[in-house]
Amino acid sequence: MSWFGFGFNAFGQICVQEKSVQEETSDAVGEVKVSVPVELRSHVDHSCCLKTCQIRASWSRRACLHESRCVWLAGFSASSISNDTRGCRDAIISESHLTLAFPDRIESWDVQRKDKTPLWSMEIIPQSESSGIWIFECTEHQKITTNMLLHVFCHFHTGVNLPLVPGGYIASKPPIFRSLAPHLQAKSLALGGDHVILLTAPGAVYSWGLGSHGQLGHGGLVSEEEPRTVEALWGVPMSSVAAGGWHSVCISEGGDLYVWGWNESGQLGLPSRGLQKAPQQKKAQPTELSDVSTPEEEPHDGDKHEEVFISIQAFPALLDVNPSSDFQRASCGSRHTAAVTTSGCLFTWGWGEYGQLGHQTFNSLDEPRRVEFFKAKDLHVVDVVCGPWNTFTAAVKKGVLDLKNT
Amino acid sequence: MESLWSKLSAALPINEEQFPLQFSDKVESSVVEMLTRSRHQLYSTTRSNNQTLYAQVVLDISWERLNTGTWRDVDKDWRRLYSYGCLFKVAALCRESPSEHEILQAVRTCDMGLLMGAAVMDNILQVFVRILQSEIRKTTKEETDYVEAKRMKIVVPRVPPIKEELAVERIKCPSLESFNTKYLVPLKPVILEGIIDHWPALNNRPWSLEYLRSVAGCRTVPVEVGSRYTDEDWSQTLLTINEFIDKYILEKVQDSQSGERAVGYLAQHQLFDQIPELKEDIRIPDYCCLGEGDEDDITVNAWFGPTGTVSPLHQDPQQNFLAQVVGSKYVRLYSPEDTDKLYPHQSQLLHNTSQVEVENPDSERFPKFVRAPYLECVLQPGDVLFIPVKHWHYVRSLDVSFSVSFWWS
User: Fold this and answer.
1) A135, A256, B188, B386: which has the highest count of C-beta atoms within 10 A?
2) Which residues on chain A are in Cβ contact (under 8 Å) with B33?
3) Residue A137 in 3-state DSSP?
4) Residue B125 and residue B191 in one domain
5) How many Å apart are CA A247 and CA A259, to the nearest integer?
6) Interface membership of B69 toward A (CB under 8 Å)
C-alpha cells in the first residue's frame, strides 16, 4: 500500500524538492502547490512510508502512523519535535497540538513549544477487559492541585479512535478534554473548523458547535452547545462521518453520501455561485462575501437558465454522483471534500486553489469528479485523509488486490 | 519619472529588519513563517513568482480565520494578518510595470484590507491606495462628456403627500441651547434646516454621480442587494463604485431572471473611514457635542442608492442625525411608546425591526398598527432630520439619494 499526497505543500509536508533543484528553477510554484499526486516518501528512510498505516494532517504538517507503532512528522519545523512515540496506537494533529494515544495513556503536546512534558495527559487503566469498565485519572498541565477521578462505563475496544477517548474527546483548542455522555454510545467523531459531528454505535448522527453556516444540519443557523441529533437523517443508519471547515459529510451503510453546511467553494458538490461555469477559467474565491439563499427550490426541468445556486445547505442533502457509486469513506479539508468508493475510485470536489482536488489543475469544482490519476495508474484507492488544504490517499496496485482476493 | 513601485516602496520600511511582524500567541508560528517568507521576498532582489503565492497563502489562511466563529469575536490579530496579506499582494502586483488591470486589482486588494482587515504599519493600505488612485487618474482619459442625465431613466416616484398635522417640525439653525431644550431632552423629532449649507458636498464640491466616480470610482464597497433586509433573497456583495452606479443607479444591467431591476443599496457603510477624500466634504454637526460621548465615538455612515430603496421600520440604540445631501427621501417616525402596536420580530437578530410593511400594512396580521400615531416628512438636500434614540423610523428613497447619518450618544 502506498500513500499519495497533493495540494498545499509550502512546508514540504507532501514532498521536499532537492536543494539543487530549488536553486535552478525560478518558478517554484510546484513547491507550494502540488497538483499531480505524489507518492509520499519519508525524509529519514525512503522505504519507510510503505509501512505507513494512517496519515493525519494539519495545515502545515503531516503525521504518519507506522505499523511499527511510532509516529513520524513532516512539514513545518517537524525535525524540532522530538517526542518518543514508540508504542503509539493513534495520533491526531492540529496546528497547535499533537495528541498521541498509547495503550496506557493519552498525551497532548503543544507543538509550538519545546516542553519536556505534555500539556495534558490522561492515564488509561483497564480494570477488567471483559467487564469493560475503565477508570482513569486526568491531570492538566496547568492545574497543579486538581486531580479528577472519573468512573465511566464505555464499550471496550482494542483500538483507540482519536479524537474519541474514554469518557469524551480531544478538542483542537483548550479545554483539550471534553466529556461526552455515555448514553450517546460514541463510535467515531469528526472535528470541523468550529463544530463537531458524532457517529453513534446504532448509526445515528449528532452535531454541535457553531451553526452559522448550516454545518450542524438542523435546518437553521443556530449554534448548539450540546450534542443534538441530526433528525433529518433519522432512520438511515450511517457508517462514517467527516467534518470540514464549515461543512459536514456522512456516509450511510448503503453507501450514500449526505452533505450539509457552507458551499461557497462547491465543497458540498452542489451548484455554487462563486464558481465559473467554464472549467478553464478560475475565479478568485476568497474575496466574495457569501449570500444566504434558501435551498429548497429544485431547478425547473428543462430550464437550464434558471439554475439555483446553494450557498448554505442547512439540512443534509443526498449527493448525486455521476457515475453512480457506493462510498465507503470520506474526508473533508477546510473547503473541499474527498470520498472513496467501494470500487476503489477517489472523487473530489470543492476548493482547488492549491491542487488539493488532484485533477492536475487549480480550479475549484462544485460537483464530484473522479481523480483520473489513480485509475490511469491502475491503483485501487482504499483510504483518504484530508488536511485543511491538501489530500492524502492510500492505494494498492489492482493486481495486488486481486491476488489477495483469490 | 518615478515608477509606481518606487513610490510604493518609499512608503515601506527601508529594509527587512525595520519591517515589524508582531503577533500574539494566537497566531501560530507556521503562519508567521509564511509572513516572514513574504517579507523576505519583498526585500529580495532576485525575481520570484513566489511573492504572489506567499501573499495568497497569507490571505487565504487569514480569510479562513476571519470566517471562524462570529465576526465580533474574531481576534484583531487575524484582521491585521489579513491586512499584511493585502500589503504583500499589492507589492507583488505592482513590482514589475503593472498593467491598468493589475493596478485596479491592487486598489481592490487595498479595499479588501481596509474593509475586512485592521490597520497595520500606520494604516499603510490607505497610503498605498492613494498612490494607486493617482496612478489611475493619470492613465485614464477624462471623459468630460459623461452625460449621466441621458442614461438615467426618468422615474416618477410615488411622492406621498405629507399631511400637515402629521408633519415633522422644521426649524432653521437653532441655537445649541434651543435644540437641547426643545428637542434633545424631550426626545422630539425635528428637521434642522440650514445647518449643513456650509458642507463642501453642498457647496464648492457638490456631490454628483460624476464627482463620486472621479473621487472614488475604482474603490470597492459593500452593496446590499434585495428590496429590504428582512427579505429572504437579500444579500450582500462587493462592487466598485463605478460598477454599483452602472448596475444599480443607471440601470445599464437588467436582472435577467425576473426582468425587474434588482435594488442595490450602498447602505450603513463607514465609507468616510475608507475614503478620506469624501470625509473632507462633510462635517460633524455641532449639535453632537450636546451628547456625552467623544467625537471619536460618533459613527458616520453613508447611504447611497437609487429610487425605491427601503429601510424597514426599525429603531437604533443611539441618537441620529440623518443629513440629506443628494435627492430626497420619505421618512416616517413612530414613538417608542407605541412599540406595542408595531409588532417587532421575536428573533434576537431582528428584535429591533418591525414586521409591518409600513406603506402596505397587513391589517389582519397587524391590526393595531393602523392606530399607531406617527410623524412623517420628505427630506430634501440640505435637511438634517433628528431621530431621537429608540425612535422607530421607516425610510424610502424618492430618487437617486445620498444621505449621511451620524450616530451619537
Assistant:
1) B386
2) 11, 60, 76
3) strand
4) no
5) 7
6) yes
